[in-house]
Amino acid sequence: MATLTNLNHAETGLQMRPLGRTDIQVSNLCVGTMMYGEQMDQAGAFEQMDACFERGLNFYNTAEMYTIPPRPETQGNSERILGQWVKDRGIRDKVVLASQKLPWKNKLAYWLIRRLPKVSSRANILTAKRPAAPAKSFLAGWIDMIQRRDKRPC
């Protein structure tokens, strides 16, 4: 089985590069998870993530709003599935996990997911009130990168 340590990147064209100005190395392709939990069930998502990981991809992206299309009853499914996969495989130290903050302009999204008025601040990003706390349901500890989907500064 190929892993991040024995994969021949020259054969796949996959490259590792620094994440921004950090020393964290990420694959030049990132696995998106917005369909997990609605269009793709957990078994299918695990199969897809296993195949990606076996080919050297170590960068996985989700968002508090996923699964798409957003509905209160499916919100957070993508995060939960990704978190369960990481936990079950015991690979938290081998993957880089990114999550996205809701767009501040999307009042419906804030109402559906957070049941809060529109708030876009550094404090809100770091302490977002969500139905499932990320440390418990998503990543068993930490998020490597939080992305913001709008252009306003924090």
Description:
It is built from 6 helices and 6 strands; from the N terminus they run αβββαβαβαααβ. With 154 residues, it is an alpha/beta fold. The chain has a 4-stranded parallel beta sheet with strand order 3-4-5-6, covered by helices on one side. Strands 1-2 form a two-stranded antiparallel sheet. Strand 1 (16-18) and strand 2 form a beta hairpin. The longest helix is centred in the first third of the chain and has 13 residues, at 42-54.
User: Regions with pLDDT < 50 over 5+ consecutive residues?
Assistant: 1-6, 129-137
Oligomer: single chain
Helices and strands, in order, run as: HEEEHEHEHHHE
Helix content: 25-40%
Short descriptors:
154 residues; alpha/beta; four-stranded parallel sheet; two-stranded antiparallel sheet; 6 strands; disordered N terminus
